[in-house]
Amino acid sequence: MKRKTSESRLATPYAIWSVLFIVIPLILIVFFSFTTQVDGRYVFTTANFEKFFNPMYFKVIRRSLVLAFISTVLCLIVGYPTAYIISKAKPSRRGTLLLLCILPMWMNFLLRTYAWSAILGRNGFINTLLRFVGLGPVNILYTDTAVLLGMVYNFLPFMILPIHTVLSKMDHDLINAARDLGANSFQVFTKVIFPLSLPGVVSGITMVFMPAVSTFVISKLLGGGQFYLIGNLIEQQFMSVGDWHFGSAISIFMMIIILISMAIMNKYSSGNDKEGGGLLL
């Protein structure tokens, strides 16, 4: 009994924190999304959600989902080999390699994105190098390419770390057994290593897609405000337009998108909650 009492006391600060900064804000967002102000009073309405189904906003949704999907795929293509190389490195070097991957995250997110503005600018490092070799300047900044580069750079560690965790805990006896049975390197990877690492892949995809689909800083700085993503639209409603009701409705819609994507990812990772997934026979 005393143990339960002490545990509940230890959990009290976390419960207060969750109520103040998670539960109450969510309640406010739901409240504003289903209400509007008429003569100083809040009136229930679904007009905020109906407004969001304007074809103009569908373009914003499509662009947000497409860029988030492409950035997630690029992070997987770059992140999986990186995580595999780190997991195969000597234990004495593995910590250093992981440190190099997460070192940029020690810097402020805004400063990291601003740095890419200087790199991709017309007088930036890349265009200076291209001029030096005689290829001339290339317009990269304020394009979809710049936004994708910013997303991949900022969210790549979220793909590397979970995949590396799964690969480093993998039972190497299964790999050795596959080789003893005559499997070549490609077969070992496709039939053993990759299936066993799927939980890490699914976690990485979830951790990259969620912030990518909701970001507004990267698209604002590297996109130059020339196009909107869902995050930019929400920021505009709260900070510029002052329409908290419509902004809350968009936030609810974005939460639904994220929850659906998480449900899909959990469906593929169900039953693989230990060291790895299942072998592909």
TrEMBL record:
Membrane recorded as keyword: yes
Pfam families hit by this protein: BPD_transp_1
Source organism, top-level taxon: Bacteria
Keyword Magnesium: no
Main location: membrane
Keywords attached to this entry: Cell membrane, Membrane, Transmembrane, Transmembrane helix, Transport
Transmembrane segments: 12-34, 65-85, 97-120, 140-167, 188-210, 216-234, 246-265
Matches recorded under InterPro entries: MetI-like
Protein topology in the membrane: Multi-pass membrane protein
Annotated ABC transmembrane type-1 domain residues: 61-265
Localization: Cell membrane
Family, similarity comment: Belongs to the binding-protein-dependent transport system permease family. CysTW subfamily.
The protein, known as: ABC transporter permease
